[in-house]
Amino acid sequence: MDNKIDRRQFLKLTGLGGVVFASGLSGWAHAAKKSGQDEFYFVQLSDTHWGFNGPKVNPDAANTLKKAVAAVNALEQAPDFVVFTGDLTHTTDDPKLRRARMAEFRDIVSALKIKEVRFMPGEHDASLDRGEAYQEFFGKLNYTFDHKGVHFIVLDNVSDPGASIGEVQLAWLKQDLKQMRQDAPIVVLTHRPLFDLYPQWDWATRDGAAAIELLMPYKNVTVFYGHIHQEHHHQTGHIAHHAAQSLIFPLPVAGSVPKRAPLPWDPEQPYKGIGFRSVEADVKDAYYKIAERPMAKG
Amino acid sequence: MLHEVLRFWVHVALLVGVVAITASSAVMADEPVIQITAKKFEYSLRTLTLKKGVPVVLELTALDRVHGFNLPDFGVRTDVVPGKVTRIRFTPDKTGEFVFFCDVFCGEGHEEMSGVLTVTD
Prior knowledge:
Number of strands of chain A: 12
Strand content of chain A: 15-25%
Number of helices of chain B: 1
Shape of chain B: globular
Oligomer: heterodimer
CATH architecture of chain A: 4-Layer Sandwich
CATH architecture of chain B: Sandwich
Strand order of the largest sheet of chain A: 1-12-11-2-3-4
Number of helices of chain A: 7
CATH topology of chain A: Purple Acid Phosphatase, chain A, domain 2
Order of helices and strands of chain A: HEEHEHEHHEEHEHEEEEE
Radius of gyration of chain A: 18 Å
CATH superfamily of chain A: Metallo-dependent phosphatases
Number of domains of chain B: 1
Largest interface: A-B, 18 and 20 residues
Radius of gyration of chain B: 18 Å
Helix content of chain A: 10-25%
Strand order of the largest sheet of chain B: 2-1-4-7
CATH topology of chain B: Immunoglobulin-like
Number of strands of chain B: 9
CATH class of chain B: Mainly Beta
């Protein structure tokens, strides 16, 4: 089945109670030109932290991931693929428990009806063993794939416990980009912000600037990431960076409180600040429309 | 030609000298030295108070595994390694409260491993 959808249909599917955010060089100005071709959409889920236990923060932690899977399966039109942008599991010092959590996570997400599911690690998954357990369950830490003309680059900025991409991977990125036209649509998927969002809370990648420098000559680059457990949009030059909500608990806005700590669960508004997103990609114009899909009811 | 060669070696000598000063682990006699140990998942000092404009040397070492010490508001960071004393010399140039934290993921309590530096006039 072809997953082409028109704009109105997409809004119907994804806009219920959510926020729609447009990103790309062309913006809405080109909306009238759309032919319905070269469009697809994917779903980004992030920071599921399977294994987390904190009733004051999320008393439904044992069910949140399952509910998210059910919500994705219930989408009227299936996305082309689903991507998890890291922190699939909550960290543990016990390597056996780490693997048990990864196995449980894998079992739960195997219920997704969408068969193309992409993964990448977060620091909770990979920083304590440099990604050893992660690779056993989910494969490579960094890789590329192409989908309907968009080149996706998965960058690992977590398997180094010091949050560096590293010279080897930067060389790999440089080599990969060499084959791309300068106007090619490129999407980078990663866990941590590549820019210094708020280094005081470790919301940065130590050598993220080097990756941005490599990407900068390319005109149509967009970054989707996680880590900060909230929606956030930022530009470094012409490159847009979009952080996703978490599927376990929200974190405060950067610098809004002295200490970075999960926001407490609000019984009056269960699941407030928790959700995932849909991303409609218009390949021709390298244009992305993001719709946040809160897990909260009402 | 001889002049150019001589100038090259003078530059090399100067460069080596600069590097030597920067990397020096020696502590000057009149500098305040603050010793901080790091272990899962805390520093021996959770709060630290310094005077603006007064140079200080932080002596850091780890007791169990590699940790980090990051004080981003002053551009200060280092790995903190067991069995090795790492010295950081810096001069606070602004007042206020500033967070320092471990930026080498060290385990289940890593995200709690932080402290607050207060700089006063």
